[in-house]
Specification:
This protein is an alpha+beta fold. It has 3 domains: 100 residues, Rossmann fold; 76 residues, ATP-grasp fold, A domain (Dna Ligase, domain 1, 2-Layer Sandwich); 227 residues, D-amino Acid Aminotransferase, Chain A, domain 1 (2-Layer Sandwich). α1 packs across α13 and α8 packs antiparallel against α10. It is globular and about 60 Å long. It comes from Sulfolobus tengchongensis. Belongs to the GARS family. One of its GO terms (molecular function) is metal ion binding.
């Protein structure tokens, strides 16, 4: 069977890894905007072919589909989904692992996702307001005296969230000017004609986690939980990135999320899949993820949705799946997921992303550097390597400005974290490389935080006020 994989990065390398491991002997073809060394090696071993071009262009993808005549399509990133690339496969009569353009709106528009949650009374929803201009959003924030989260109203690569707390209690002129700059920066991250620019949500707090759910339009299967580490630097400080690492496990959970919370989260994502179908009249086929937070307000609470695998969460989850995940991908795309079964390694995984100095602030500074990797030594030390923003140019590996590698190890969390640290020693470059050594460590803090939140939301549950809090607006009326 010929499989055409769309995408550039470590997530797509992880998907190719799953397809190659399958006993079904998939012949893997790939389409990327540059040659990813990890994907390229798998393509060569399977006697496929590599294509380079615009992964968001329906016309380009259509031409490659007609050249390859694949039996199955697999789409990794969100942008091709937003541009309707999955629809191109389906128009050609080819099953594809990837949400349609209409279904992918659950990620593309945070405003649409919130509206959907309220329309269909999906638990874990936050109050929100949307704004079409920066000025309207700024006026609301300055007049309101509470805590809010300010976000671009649409997908912006996981970046751009600003949390503002108790403004009127301390806002000086200097802080007011800094806030206005932040709002303007966020407003410029998403600018789709006819849609809101900024969404402002009530602020909540608690440990974050992600649940990915496979859907073939009829059957759903939940995958193990993962947690993403968004901030660039140690201990969760610094600018937000696409993700500097991830953990998953043990079993289907995380050390700070229990079985009941897992099941509630699964119910929320299933309810979302049903709501999407009611709204757009198209079945959701592919993977959908709830990016969640355990909060006092609801317990499991939706922060946002993904219409694809998270990155680097995919690198944490896929290597832990003992069953034939390549076949599971095929069953999802072809509508036979009821025949699939997920068996998970009981041990945990830790992923750490390695990036060139400059990421995420300056893509230019992080681009164009030669990087060397001793893959044999890394494998000897129990690590799996997925290539990200690295291009194979001749015989050299050249950084493209984002996260270059995602290094994975499986074991007890602390043990796996230390394995990855050891393997990072086998990576060198002509610039400084940055990564977070704290990923997978100091989990007790998150366990304690979850226990405090759990006590609060369960107390609300007993009183029948789960999800209930004071409505607010600048004038003291309804939100």
């Amino acid at each position: 069977m010929k499989v055409l994989l769309i995408g550039d990065g470590a997530r797509e390398n992880a998907l190719a890894y799953a397809l190659e491991k399958s006993p079904n002997n998939y012949r893997i073809y790939a389409m990327s905007s540059y040659i990813n060394p990890g994907i390229n090696s798998i393509v060569k071993r399977s006697n496929g072919e590599y294509f380079v071009g615009d992964i968001n262009s329906s016309d380009t993808i259509e031409n490659i589909i007609r050249k390859v005549n694949p039996d199955l399509g697999v789409i990794g990133p969100e942008e091709p989904l937003f541009h309707g690339v999955a629809d191109v496969f389906r128009k050609e009569g080819i099953p594809v692992f990837g949400a349609s353009r209409k279904c992918a709106k659950i990620e593309e528009s945070k405003a649409w996702a919130r509206e959907l949650m309220w329309k269909y009374s999906i638990p874990g929803r936050l109050r929100y307001r949307t704004f079409y201009t920066i000025e309207e959003a700024a006026k609301f924030i300055l007049e309101y005296g509470g805590s809010v989260a300010i976000k671009p109203a649409g997908q912006a690569g996981g970046k751009g969230v600003k949390v503002v707390a108790d403004l009127e209690a301390y806002l000086t002129q200097d802080k007011r000017e800094a806030l206005m700059k932040s709002v303007k920066d966020i407003g410029n991250l998403y600018n789709k004609e006819g849609e809101p620019k900024i969404i402002i949500e009530e602020k909540v707090d608690g440990p974050e986690y992600t649940l990915h759910v496979l859907s073939d339009g009829k059957t759903t299967i939940p995958l193990p939980l993962a947690q993403d580490y968004k901030n660039a630097y140690q201990d969760g400080i610094g600018p937000e990135t696409g993700g500097m690492g991830s953990i998953s496990g043990p079993h289907n959970l995380l050390p700070f999320i229990n079985e009941e919370e897992y099941n509630i989260t699964y119910d929320i994502v299933k309810a979302t899949i049903e709501a999407i179908y009611k709204e757009v009249r198209e079945s959701y086929v592919g993977v959908i993820a709830g990016q969640m937070m355990l909060t006092e307000l609801w317990g499991p609470t939706v922060i946002e949705y993904y219409s694809r695998f998270g990155d680097p969460e995919a690198s944490a989850i896929i290597p832990r799946i003992n069953s034939d995940f390549g076949e599971i991908i095929e069953l999802t795309a072809t509508g036979h997921l009821n025949k699939g079964k997920i068996e998970v390694n009981e041990r945990a995984s830790v992923v750490k992303a390695v990036a060139p100095l400059g990421y995420p602030i300056s893509r230019q500074m992080a681009s164009g550097h030669r990087i060397s990797i001793d893959l044999d030594k890394m494998r000897e030390n129990g690590c799996i390597v997925f290539f990200g923003s690295i291009s194979m140019e001749g015989m050299q590996l050249i950084t493209k400005g984002s996260r270059a590698l995602e290094i994975v190890a499986i074991g007890e969390l602390e043990e796996a974290s230390e394995k990855v640290d050891k393997c990072i020693n086998y990576v060198s470059a002509d610039t400084k490389l940055v990564y977070r050594s704290d990923i997978g460590k100091n989990i007790n803090y998150q366990i304690e935080k979850a226990e405090i939140v759990r006590y609060s939301y369960m107390n609300r549950q007993r009183k029948g006020i789960l999800g209930v809090s004071a409505d607010w607006s600048p004038n003291g009326g309804l939100w």
